[in-house]
From TrEMBL, chain A:
Superkingdom classification of source: Eukaryota
SUPFAM superfamilies (UniProt xref): MFS general substrate transporter (SSF103473)
InterPro entries: MFS (IPR011701), MFS_dom (IPR020846), MFS_trans_sf (IPR036259), NO3_transporter (IPR044772)
Family the UniProt entry places it in: Belongs to the major facilitator superfamily. Nitrate/nitrite porter (TC 2.A.1.8) family.
Coiled-coil region(s): none
Name listed for the protein in its UniProt record: Major facilitator superfamily (MFS) profile domain-containing protein
Record keywords, A-Z: Membrane, Nitrate assimilation, Transmembrane, Transmembrane helix
Region ranges (Disordered): 1-27, 474-513
Species classification: Eukaryota, Viridiplantae, Streptophyta, Embryophyta, Tracheophyta
TM stretches of this protein: 48-70, 113-132, 139-158, 178-198, 210-230, 263-282, 334-356, 363-387, 393-414, 426-445
Topological category with respect to the lipid bilayer: Multi-pass membrane protein
The Major facilitator superfamily (MFS) profile domain, residue ranges: 48-448
PROSITE patterns given in the database record: MFS
Polar residues bias: start-end ranges: 11-22
UniProtKB/TrEMBL annotation, chain B:
Annotated protein name in UniProt: High-affinity nitrate transporter
Keyword terms of this UniProt record: Cell membrane, Membrane, Nitrate assimilation, Signal, Transmembrane, Transmembrane helix
InterPro entries named in the record: Transptr_NO3_Nar2
Top-level taxon of origin: Eukaryota
Species assigned in the record: Stylosanthes scabra
Record flagged with keyword Hydrolase: no
PANTHER family: HIGH-AFFINITY NITRATE TRANSPORTER 3.1, HIGH-AFFINITY NITRATE TRANSPORTER 3.2
Segments crossing the lipid bilayer: 177-196
Family: Belongs to the NAR2 family.
Known function: Involved in nitrate transport.
Leader peptide range in chain numbering: 1-22
């Protein structure tokens, strides 16, 4: 009988090929790396990591390249505070839908093509920033440049495809954190580039325009690097794997359905809106806050603003590492508790930030606040890879998009116009963080439990949960094999206490091939 | 007696505090200088090209000796209220150390109280002056560089005799062309990559077909 599943047939034919692939890091049954070696550029895992964080970093640099140069731009274009505020909202609102779309694109064509396409298609917006001449055109270029922030989703998707559950938290944390670093680095880079160009001899109002070619060109280069050196999955690229039958083509509508019908994705979208969304809001308003409230020079206010974003170097990865460490002992329940505690504490610090009146205490509170809010972002993406396997991209996109929605909503409620003073807005934002973090209590995985309840008494397994996304017809075709492997590898989320007692004795550790 | 001492001490402290903050209040200054500038009401000037001539002298109707502390005169280009609206970085504050109304210095000249003739200066509008509506104000400073008097070309409400300056755009044809070229390159290279990927994919699948059959 010749009826073999196409995936299995290709696997046995190419089985020799893929088994002979030697990886320089240890891998699990899906060929995902089980170790995260920061300083290596080995193909394909660590190479994917470095390509993804650098390209995401460049998108952040481009998206937030205008704020540090605003004192020059606002005089050149005759902008009002309303124009600037609207452009700030526009810069983060474009990515709301772009992130969801990016999630779906990753599921369908792979993170390599999806991210490189977005980066190359938004680079023109950054180039065109040098020819704008009005408030409207300023808003438009910031809006379209902001679309590039959707590369966050492809970064997280790529890391979740390359790294195994025990280390996926830190892989997501480092790539997300080092990318977000761009928001802080740009506050230092752009003024430097601007003054260099001006000192060479260009007039002030020309120098800033020339300066924008730097982030635009850098962005373009990162896209080329991804296309030339990157690879979607440990086994190869989507296109080749699809054609060879190793990666079955999935249906867009099914992928989308399984993503949006999973309530956990919506809860995480809301809570991410109040850690990452808050981070984006602060990126847009904090320099002005310090400048106005404490009468600092714009240069000094910019350095303080930069330090908020620069904390991402260790705080977001730290969140990912803590999430992984807690999961080793307490499983998914530990990850949920860690996220709730960290984000709630960040909310408390935000309330305090708006209330303190002295400059030095304010800076200290801001830095501690930045560490906790960014760690919460890292912890969120320690949970996202487990919500769905089939629709990982859609869930990542929803969560990422939710982050930007949070930024838009928060800026519109608290920081538009003059209803609230900035310090009152910051305190109220802190209250909103605490309220919007409570829904984490409602997240429940039947195979692992939730914050207040243990795993289901019906002994639901990881396989039951992940295979629940495929109906029997699809399972007959063999489309679900990747989910099966993932389910197997994700038993680590049970935590150490339950691991020995609930797993059958003859099953080996997740690193078997 | 003790209460008088306390009052005197706190009064002294307040004065010192005021000098600490350099907080001369604009409302405390007297309008003692007559300033005229060449732009007529509503005239539009171009930055980098046009010139402004300013002339200033002490108002001769004032009692003599009022300018005894004046050591320097600084003439500044100031934003009119319409250009300050919805722009907190140009906000007017009564405390002159925090006031942001007059950010561009035109000229600074030493003042000689004995010489009563008017002084003037011709200024080419710099290329970094932004597009806005302006008037001209002159401040008199004493030897501690504190404001002690002023004069301006407009009335107290700052509604008359305002003129506009059009700043340079900073745009260049070469920048416009470069933007278009690089953007086009960015988009076209993406499609080139797609094409190469498709060709590689076709080659790989034909190889796989051969292996299977």
């Amino acid at each position: 009988m010749e009826v073999e599943h196409p995936a299995a047939a290709a696997e046995s034919n190419n089985g020799n090929q893929s088994q002979e692939q030697k990886f320089s890091v240890p891998v699990d049954s899906e060929n995902k790396a089980t170790e995260f070696r920061l300083l290596s550029i080995s193909k394909p895992h660590m190479r994917a990591f470095h390509l993804s964080w650098i390209s995401f970093f460049s998108c952040f640099v481009s998206s937030f390249a205008a704020p540090p140069l605003l004192p020059i731009i606002r005089d050149n274009l005759n902008l009002t505070a309303t124009d600037i505020g609207n452009a700030g909202v526009a810069s983060v609102s474009g990515a709301v839908f772009a992130r969801v779309a990016m999630g779906t694109a990753c599921d369908l064509v792979g993170p390599r093509l999806a991210s490189a396409s977005l980066i190359l298609l938004t680079a023109p917006a950054v180039y065109f920033t040098s020819v704008i001449n009005s408030a409207t055109s300023y808003l438009l270029v910031r809006f379209f440049t902001g679309f590039s922030l959707a590369t966050f989703v492809s970064t997280q998707f790529w890391m979740s495809s390359m790294f195994s559950p025990p280390v996926v938290g830190r892989a997501n944390g480092f790539s997300g954190g080092w990318g977000n670093l761009g928001g802080g680095a740009t506050q230092l880079i752009m003024p430097l580039v601007f003054s260099l160009i001006r000192d060479i001899g260009a007039a002030q109002f020309t120098a800033w325009r020339i300066a924008f070619f730097v982030p635009a060109f850098f962005q373009m280069l990162t896209a080329f690097s991804i296309l030339i050196f990157g690879q979607d999955m440990p086994d190869g690229n989507f296109q080749r794997l699809k054609k060879a039958g190793e990666k079955p083509k999935d249906e867009f509508s099914k992928v989308l359905f399984h993503g949006v019908s999973n309530y956990r994705g919506w809860i995480l979208a809301l809570t991410y809106g109040y850690c990452f969304g808050v981070e984006l809001t602060i990126d847009n308003i904090i320099a002005e806050y310090f400048y106005d409230r404490f009468n600092l020079k714009l240069h000094t206010a910019g350095i303080i603003a930069a330090s908020f974003g620069l904390a991402n170097l260790f705080s977001r990865p730290g969140g990912g590492i803590v999430s992984d460490a807690v999961s080793k002992r307490f499983g998914m329940r530990g990850r949920l508790w860690a996220l709730w505690l960290c984000q709630t504490f960040a909310g408390v610090l935000c309330i305090i930030l708006g209330l303190v009146g002295s400059l030095s205490v304010s800076v200290v509170v801001m830095i501690i606040f930045s560490v906790f809010v960014q760690a919460a972002c890292g912890m969120t993406f320690g949970i996202v890879p487990f919500v769905s396997r089939r629709s990982l991209g859609v869930i990542s996109g929803m969560t990422g998009g939710g982050g930007n929605v949070g930024a838009v909503v928060t800026q519109l409620i608290f920081f538009k116009g003059s209803r609230f003073s900035k310090e009152r807005g910051i305190t109220l934002m802190g209250v909103m963080i605490i309220i919007c973090t409570l829904p984490i209590c409602l997240i429940y995985f039947p195979q692992w439990g939730g914050m207040f309840f243990g795993p289901s008494s019906e002994k639901v397994t990881e396989e039951d949960y992940y295979l629940g996304e495929w109906n029997s017809k699809e399972q007959e075709k063999g489309s679900h094999h990747a989910s099966l492997k993932f389910a197997d590898n994700s038993v680590s989320e049970r935590g150490r206490r339950l691991n020995a007692s609930t797993r059958p004795a003859d099953e080996s550790t997740p690193t078997h091939v | 007696m003790a209460s008088y001492k306390v009052v005197a001490a706190s009064f002294l402290l307040c004065c010192l505090v005021q000098t600490c903050y350099g907080g001369v209040l604009f409302s405390s200054l007297e309008r003692t200088i007559d300033v005229t500038a060449s732009p007529k009401e509503g005239q539009v000037l171009s930055a980098g090209v046009d010139k402004i001539s300013v002339t200033w002298a002490l108002n001769n109707t004032l009692p003599s000796g009022i300018d005894s502390t004046y050591k320097t005169i600084k003439v500044k280009l100031c934003y009119a209220p319409v250009s300050q609206r919805d722009r907190p970085w140009r906000k007017m504050e009564n405390n002159l150390s925090r006031d942001k109304t007059c950010q561009q210095k035109i000229v600074s000249k030493p003042y000689d109280a004995s010489n009563k003739t008017s002084q003037s200066f011709e200024w080419i509008i710099g290329r970094d002056i932004p597009t806005a509506t302006y008037f001209v104000r002159a401040y008199a400073y004493d030897q501690n560089d504190m404001e002690v008097g002023y004069g301006q070309t407009t009335n107290d409400k700052k509604s008359t005799n305002l003129f506009e300056i059009n700043g340079v755009t900073g745009k260049h044809t070469s920048l416009d062309i470069s933007s278009v070229c690089f953007s086009a390159f960015s988009v076209v290279s993406l499609f080139v990559f797609f094409y190469i990927e498709k060709r590689k994919g076709k080659a790989a699948s034909s190889v796989e077909q051969k292996v299977i059959t």
